[in-house]
């Protein structure tokens, strides 16, 4: 006979405290030093307006939202105070989002206290300064971007282009962990295109999913991949690439490579493609794709 695993009163209390803390951390504060507020004081909506693009400032967690105008409203039937944690804030008139080293811009943003998500309508752009000297900035263009106040995660969708130094990726969706610099490119249909500009030509990777560590310049591609290095095309099930060494390790059943100009072909369970030397050979050491290094938060 199985024992019932009912939640204890202490655990229920802990869960309630955590839920309350999460709700409180999502409550937005709006200031208007160079502006004005109008609207029904008790039931709202509260309307904030300024002549300056940064005259209205919304603050929630580490996120700051600057705009000319904001409207904060409660669900029907609730007062503004009673609705804290369930309200919606709409910013317009040119919006700037600030968090850490990141600055994003777009025409319109809607923030939900209930979900903790701020959705920036596009065309939207995002720029992140390097964490330290020697690293590259990250720039993103997209139709829409969302920012999670509970984490440092932003998500871009709709004709997304992410540029990081000499690397440019295009996809339908890009999940991005801002401090860690993990970018996950995915497509609704078709394949992600990742291009690495070099002095002697482009290195192009196609795959349904690409995960890139923008700070260390490492990536994995999965779901069926193709690496195009000038006249050399290497295909397989997945690959790992380290820009510091210029080496891509491609695994497959088998992995295959062809040099179109020389008519040279090779195949094997694992291939080593050196993009600096434009050379492919069978990789004879044991190799496991380093999936743990590229896991998203919560995976």
Automatic annotation (TrEMBL):
Keywords: Signal. One of its GO terms (biological process) is lipopolysaccharide transport. GO terms for cellular component: cell outer membrane; outer membrane-bounded periplasmic space. InterPro entries: LPS_export_LptA, OstA-like_N. The keyword Signal applies. Residues 1-21 form the signal peptide. This is OstA family protein. It comes from Oceanithermus profundus.
């Amino acid at each position: 006979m199985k024992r019932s695993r009912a939640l204890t009163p202490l655990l229920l209390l802990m869960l309630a405290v955590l839920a309350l803390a999460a709700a409180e951390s999502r409550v937005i504060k709006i200031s208007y030093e160079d502006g004005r507020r109008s609207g029904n004081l008790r039931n709202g909506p509260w309307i904030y307006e300024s002549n300056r693009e940064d005259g209205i400032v919304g603050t929630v967690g580490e996120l700051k939202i600057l705009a000319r105008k904001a409207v904060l409203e409660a669900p029907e039937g609730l007062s503004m105070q009673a609705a804290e944690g369930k309200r919606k804030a709409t910013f317009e008139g040119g919006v700037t989002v600030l968090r850490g080293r990141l600055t994003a811009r777009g025409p319109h943003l809607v923030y939900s206290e209930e979900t903790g998500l701020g959705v920036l309508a596009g065309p939207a752009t995002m720029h992140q300064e390097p964490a330290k000297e020697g690293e590259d900035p990250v720039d993103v263009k997209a139709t829409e971007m969302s920012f999670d106040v509970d984490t440092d995660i932003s998500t871009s969708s709709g004709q997304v282009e992410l540029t990081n130094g000499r690397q440019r990726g295009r996809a339908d969706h890009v999940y991005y962990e801002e401090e860690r610099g993990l970018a996950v490119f995915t497509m609704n249909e078709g394949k992600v295109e990742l291009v690495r500009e070099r002095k002697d030509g482009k290195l192009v990777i196609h795959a349904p999913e690409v995960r890139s560590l923008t700070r260390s310049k490492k990536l994995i591609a999965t779901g069926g991949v193709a690496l195009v290095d000038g006249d050399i095309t290497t295909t397989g099930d997945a690959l790992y690439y380290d820009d510091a060494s210029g080496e891509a390790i491609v695994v497959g059943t088998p992995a295959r490579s062809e040099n179109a100009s020389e008519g040279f072909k090779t195949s094997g369970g694992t291939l080593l493609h050196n993009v600096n030397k434009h050379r492919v050979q069978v990789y004879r050491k044991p190799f496991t794709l380093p999936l743990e290094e590229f896991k998203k938060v919560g995976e």
